[in-house]
Amino acid sequence: MSERNLKRPRPSFADSPSEVECDWNMGKLPFHHEIRTPSLSPLDHASKAQLRQQLQDLRREKIAAPLLALVSKLMLHRTNQGIFNAPVDPVRLVCPTYYDVIKHPMDLGTIKQNLVALAYVSAEHVAADIRLVFTNALLFNPPGHVVHETAVLLLKEFEKEYASYLRKERDLAIKRSEHHCPHCQGHVCGLCEEKCINFEPPLVMCLGKCGQRLRRHAAYFMTPDGQLNWCAKCVPKLPEFTFGDRVVMKAELVKAKFQEELTEPWVQCDSCMGWVHQVCALFNSEIIVDDDVPFTCALCRLHALESQYVAPTEAQADPVLDSPEKTEPTYKHDDMSTHSPVAKKAKCLKPLFKDPLVLDTPETPTRLGAFMQRWIRDHLVGLGESRTVADSVFVKLASSVRITAPVSEYAQDHFRLNGYAYPSVVTYTSKTILVFQQIDGIEVCLFSMYVQEYGPDCGIPSNDNRTYIAYLDSLGYFRPRHARTSVYQQLVIAYLAFAKTRGFTHAHIWACPTTRGGDFIYWCHPVHQRNPSKERLLLWYKAIIATAKARHVAFGHETLWSSHFAALQSGISSAPLPPYFDGDYWPAELERVVLTPLKRTKKKCADEPPKVKARDVIKAEVYRSLEASKDSLFVIPLQPTCAHCNQMLVNMPHWQSTTGAVCDVCAAVCVDSDVHLVRQPVPSFVENAADDLEFSCPFLDSRSVLLKNCEERHYQFDTLRRAKYSTMMLLYHMRHA
Ligand SMILES: [Zn+2]
Ligand SMILES: [Zn+2]
Ligand SMILES: [Zn+2]
Ligand SMILES: [Zn+2]
Ligand SMILES: [Zn+2]
Q: 483 C-alpha vs ligand 3 centroid, how far in Å?
């Protein structure tokens, strides 16, 4: 909860969960150093404060999701013009008396942040804050003033939207109370107080004319093996047809609907016999343990802890615990049943899962992980955050594998220079970097990168000592929220710094916004986390480069156009072939251009040798495309270059003049008295860095495999609730790779 909110008295609602004393304070919760017994859930070892936090988060997140959409709508409303989206700045807006008149300032941006931080107890609290934004504006600005009139309009708009929200909630509540299905048998989850919750349907595309993603509630048609799918509109009309080399009968197509098989799994507590969602309970159903291991839900654990430490009256007065399904828990562990699905499973087949969460277990830390982790923790302390916050971030190199990838035959065919052509394969090291934060003691994966490192033996000389940041994805759950952007940017810089330390000379980034519904690494992003526009993404990377320069990690920045393609286009004979990365922009563009029929130029080149002409046309089109998207194709030198002899000074001390770096040799020769040279040491973070050993984690070695695995197992990241669960499962698979 933000300070702004704490200061302001707010009405209390008897039916809302009380606020816990531990509002996101990881420092109090060092449960990861205990010796563990086999457990089915990390909550088995959670403290009282953590359990209460988990319950609070589960219940508040339900409120937050629809209201985030409502607030975002107001923020983007065309009459708003950004007036109400940030705190009033009395200096910039020249209204020095603002805070004398307005005692309880509020703005939509703050409300949105509070919603994301799960700071609101009830929808009424959110509504009160939204009304406050506009009543403040009505109070400070006289009628007729543009801000006053806009506030009148938006307040009206809000009341309309809010009424419709309340109506929908009422309808949902009725639907919920009537819901009864084989999955839940009418039970309510004791933790989140919901019945069945549906997963996002897998990403299935219609093979018909529309080519769209199949929607959740719509029926569709598929072959019995589920391999081929059509939406109801595009379902083939013919009685028999071929698809590829497969013959399909229309009669064999099956009508399907996502919703049916997509309900979140439940688990029964062996203590209270109540049912909870596996996601809510952070219950790992993939661990196969002995029949004797009972599962105890978080509510029972909390009751047990409360009865140990807290006077019973106090515990009873806590509305958090007053769940409608509350049963008196039994603590007798001999009274175990076999009702939980785990107990029905086979005997121990895998080693017991002892450390579901712990990242700093005595497994060998990787050099890259340790370097980045130190970097980011120091950065957080530098920002003024506490050591506890800093130490809540973990960086892990999750896999490092050697890949030999084929080089596009079009690149081999079309790009030859001075007798040199691309080889048929290129070799690189693919690394998966995952960043976690312990939020209330529970790990959440919130930042990830796939990089390709091309060493001197990669097979393509222009690739030597270059690293390509192939994919980068993040989730908005980092806390505290105000540090999020800078932390995510510093994570990229930390990687670049490590690459520089190891002697890499350039980093390449293709800043490519994801398309709607297209997840790069995480399956299902939060709805409120908008995909950044191309412009915002470019600004984000430019900010990274600027900061990296200030930290002596980067030295200038170029684009793939300025560094390679411009020279190629103008036919400079000494121009080298451009670097070629697996899955990069230009090979894909080349392929697109080659495969697109050249309608416009066909006539013109009819009397000339077609192949040669086509080659030039193709190249020209690729150049045009590269020039048009040059802003998104960053080339970042990680080492300075001597301004005189153009030699790259790889982790060498050098001289710095106003015009650039100067190497020792050139500095000795050109004793130009006008030039003032300053000695520039190698940055302090550059140590003798070696690469990590290679190791594979088949679950996530490649981005597409990770995404597919998460999609198939419903490891979604669209809510904090699910992100905690999915991270737990991700860590489980990493451990059991
Ligand atoms: Zn149900
Ligand atoms: Zn639940
Ligand atoms: Zn269709
Ligand atoms: Zn229970
Ligand atoms: Zn020089």
A: 43
